[in-house]
Inverse folding.
RNA sequence: GGCGGCGUAGCCAAGUGGUAAGGCAGGGGCCUGCAAAGCCCUGAUACGCGGGUUCGAAUCCCGCCGCCGCCUCCA
């Protein structure tokens, strides 16, 4: 059974079949680098990180491109406010985002192109669109894409040109031939970053960059294009129009994937809403896997609720998953072969359920449920007295599948490092105190260790300790 | 107004024609000197409301109510 993916273009789940066997060309809309990135950005990037990991798990070679928009109105405006150079400002936030990629545990995209470095390709494509009559040049050096020239315009977002004309809130530029026409190239205004072009100095419009980077780095047709649902219109709609008009090939993108937005209360998290939490602020309080767990617990196409309760729930769920990796009890007697065989069978069953869920449009909540079931089976076996060797296979499966999600289930238990002998010594003494029923002293050791971040647990099969997270 | 989507237990969240996964929180129990963890049992006669189709609907159709996103920069 092939992987099924929901395609925004057709509004259906379709069997996933890339253009070239075994190779997936994937482009993800990256950030506009004008300010600190927030969790909405992180969530989106993480969704496609998880999808990429699963495709690779499934044996595909994924070519993953994520862009940086480093030329843009917002960057220019903000740089002006701060009295900085726009390109320097962009560079600063690109470096910061690079740090986020590392800290969030994201796989590195293979190419991370920047608009400022793609100007020749952009110019080439705009020229091509003019030649083919899909674009026109205005006096002053602006170039616009002429939407009515592309009869299937609106096919991604389900809009018709007639509807669009009425909804226009901004006074359309009277020089445009049609109100929906959009800028491919903007003539430079004084003090703005600009590049030479056949139409005079200027800079690219918002949408053309993605077309150029796609065609340059992945080719004229790609398999997956991802981004937030708020990009469907106009950004991706325009991207299709330009790209298909330029190349004459359709579809430009075989599968359009759009993730739901991160919500705070009833509103999406956004800079303009003022309700955002920056990635840096979140990571001060929580580890990256907590965010990853939040993303996994909800299907990627649905909105994701962000609040204190959902963060806590993700934290608890992560702990539960990690609990499955705990070692056997010190004096575990071991299980009989049939029981071990059963556990290993349960692990294989978990893998099957995991794959079935992920094959169905990357249903991470259902796949996660399979992992929780496996954790319960491992815990049952451990409680029954399994040894480390007997748990090994099931735990390896758990570790591997959680790794496909990008989660790190640091094996817990006898911590490495210098403190282990000291803790063990204290626990030996405590054991003797317990034998003599000197509870107050025994508890003093346990409480003292707890204050130092060491959790002591007395099990039927011996006493264990671990670092508290 | 147009386009897209959502409404499932206290909370989060799968399921989209065959009789409601999973996680968190809660209750009871086992284990324990106590604790913690784990394990076992427990929760919606029920899936926004009202009709309809069907042997059968949370799942399909119609209507209504509420909510969100997009139509302007936005992951």
């Amino acid at each position: 059974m092939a992987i099924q993916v929901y395609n925004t273009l057709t509004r259906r789940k379709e069997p996933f079949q890339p253009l070239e066997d075994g190779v997936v060309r994937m482009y993800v809309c990256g950030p506009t680098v004008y300010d600190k990135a927030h969790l909405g950005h992180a969530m989106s990037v993480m969704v496609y990180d998880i999808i990429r990991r699963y495709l690779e798990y499934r044996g595909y070679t994924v070519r993953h491109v994520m862009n940086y928009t480093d030329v843009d109105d917002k960057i220019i405006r903000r740089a002006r406010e701060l009295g900085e150079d726009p390109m320097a400002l962009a560079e600063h936030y690109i470096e910061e985002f690079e740090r986020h990629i590392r800290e969030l545990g994201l796989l590195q995209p293979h190419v991370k192109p920047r608009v400022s470095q793609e100007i020749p390709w952009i110019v080439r494509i705009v020229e091509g669109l003019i030649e083919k009559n899909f674009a026109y040049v205005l006096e002053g050096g602006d170039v616009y894409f002429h939407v009515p020239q592309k009869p299937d315009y609106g096919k991604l977002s389900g809009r018709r040109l007639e509807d669009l004309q009425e909804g226009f809130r901004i006074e359309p530029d009277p020089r445009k031939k049609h109100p929906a026409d959009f800028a491919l190239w903007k003539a430079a205004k004084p003090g703005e970053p600009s590049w030479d072009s056949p139409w005079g100095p200027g800079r690219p419009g918002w949408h053309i960059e993605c077309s150029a980077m796609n065609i340059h780095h992945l080719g004229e047709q790609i398999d997956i294009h991802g981004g937030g649902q708020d990009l469907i219109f106009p950004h991706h709609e325009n991207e299709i129009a330009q790209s298909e008009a330029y190349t004459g090939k359709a579809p430009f993108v075989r599968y359009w994937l759009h993730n739901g937005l991160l919500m705070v209360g009833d509103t999406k998290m956004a800079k303009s809403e003022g309700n955002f939490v920056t990635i840096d602020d979140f990571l001060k309080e929580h580890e990256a896997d907590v965010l990853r767990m939040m993303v996994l617990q909800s299907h990627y196409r649905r909105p994701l609720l962000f609040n204190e309760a959902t963060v806590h729930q993700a934290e608890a769920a992560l702990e539960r998953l990690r609990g499955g990796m705990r070692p056997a009890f010190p004096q575990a007697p071991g299980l009989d072969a049939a029981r071990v065989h059963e556990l290993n069978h349960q692990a294989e069953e978990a893998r099957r359920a995991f794959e079935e869920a992920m094959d169905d449009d990357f249903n991470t909540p259902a796949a996660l449920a399979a992992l929780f079931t496996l954790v319960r089976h491992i815990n049952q076996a451990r409680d029954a007295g399994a040894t480390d060797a007997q748990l090994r296979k099931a735990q390896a499966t758990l570790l591997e599948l959680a790794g496909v999600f990008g989660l790190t289930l640091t094996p817990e238990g006898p911590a490495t490092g210098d403190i282990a002998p000291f803790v063990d010594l204290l626990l030996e003494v405590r054991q003797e105190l317990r034998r003599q029923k000197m509870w107050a002293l025994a508890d003093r050791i346990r409480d003292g260790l707890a204050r130092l971040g060491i959790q002591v647990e007395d099990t039927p099969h011996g006493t264990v300790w671990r670092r508290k997270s």
In short: DSSP finds 15 helices and 15 strands in chain A. Chain A has a mean pLDDT of 92. Residues 337-359 of chain A form the longest helix (23 residues). Chain A has three domains: 4-285, 316-404, 420-467.
